[in-house]
Every structure is written in structure tokens, then in C-alpha cells.
Specification:
It contains six helices and two strands; from the N terminus they run ββαααααα. It has 154 residues and is an alpha+beta fold. It is globular, with a radius of gyration of 25 Å. It has two domains: 30 residues, no CATH class; 104 residues, no CATH class. Helices cover 40% and strands 13% of the residues. A two-stranded antiparallel ribbon has the order 1-2.
Length: 154
């Protein structure tokens, strides 16, 4: 084993090695290039939005919105959730302005109880609570989203 004092070992495709700043002694190991083909299961996703839009919670939400109103209301509901939760982040804490807004529907601590819910990280319960809230306050997601566009909250 050969020991060389280096800080960073840069591997250049031409197999040339460069050494920068001596800070520790490390053994040199042989690095072999990867020659196997990448498995089809490991291919990078080229259209991440297609994968992203198929999250199980979105499927659940779309089913619930369609059951409650109609498929035409899904687009508005989806836009509300995208804006309120930063694109379907279940545990989003909106505490940028010292707000208590939290979760998919961006509920304030005081909002949860108005629809008979408790603050939760459980995504399906958050969807159910958001649907109850929209129905009680605006009747439909389209009306809620129209209000949101004018006021930057719903």
C-alpha cells in the first residue's frame, strides 16, 4: 500500500491525478471506470412532472374532489394546494411571517377546529379537512381559488 499526503484527490477522465493542499495521509486505491450498462430501472426520469403528478396523495385528493363536486373542480383545488403547500409538501410550515399556516391546505392553527379537524401530518386527513373547509366557506374549489387570486389566501 502506498501512502500519500493529500487533501483532495481529483479524478480526471484521462486518469490523470491532481493533488491539492497536503492535509492528511491517505492510502491510494485503484479506481476502475464503471463499464456496465445502466439498468433500465435506474434510467433518469426525463419528465419529472409526470412522476411528480402521480403521487398517491394527489390521486386520493382528485378522487375526493371529483366525488364531492366534479372533475372540473380538480384544477382549481390542485392550484390551491400547490400554492398553499409549495407543491404538495405535506408538512409545509408556512412560518415565513410568523403565521401558524401548516400543511397541504395551509391551515392556521385556528382553522383546523372550524371544520372539526385537528392539526395533523397525515396527508389524507389534510385533504379531507381542506375539502370540508372549501365547501363550508366557498362552496367550490373554483370559488375558493378565485378568492385566493384576489387576496393571496383563501
Amino acid at each position: 500500500m502506498v501512502l500519500v499526503a493529500i487533501a483532495i484527490l481529483l479524478l480526471i477522465p484521462s486518469k490523470t491525478y491532481s493533488y491539492i493542499a497536503v492535509t492528511e495521509i491517505v492510502p491510494i486505491i485503484e479506481v476502475k471506470p464503471h463499464t456496465e450498462a445502466i439498468s433500465p430501472q435506474l434510467q433518469p426520469v426525463t419528465d419529472w412532472t409526470q412522476e411528480f403528478n402521480q403521487l398517491p396523495i394527489q390521486e386520493y385528493a382528485k378522487e375526493k374532489v371529483t366525488e364531492k363536486w366534479s372533475e372540473s373542480e380538480w384544477e382549481s383545488f390542485n392550484k390551491i394546494i400547490n400554492q398553499e403547500s409549495r407543491y404538495w409538501e405535506v408538512t409545509t410550515d408556512h412560518n415565513l411571517n410568523l403565521s401558524t399556516a401548516y400543511g397541504l391546505g395551509g391551515f392556521l392553527d385556528s382553522t383546523w377546529a372550524t371544520v372539526g379537524c385537528i392539526k395533523t401530518d397525515e396527508a389524507k386527513m389534510q385533504i379531507d379537512c381542506t375539502i370540508k373547509y372549501i365547501e363550508a366557506r366557498y362552496k367550490t374549489p373554483t370559488q375558493a381559488y378565485s378568492f385566493h387570486l384576489l387576496n393571496n389566501y383563501y
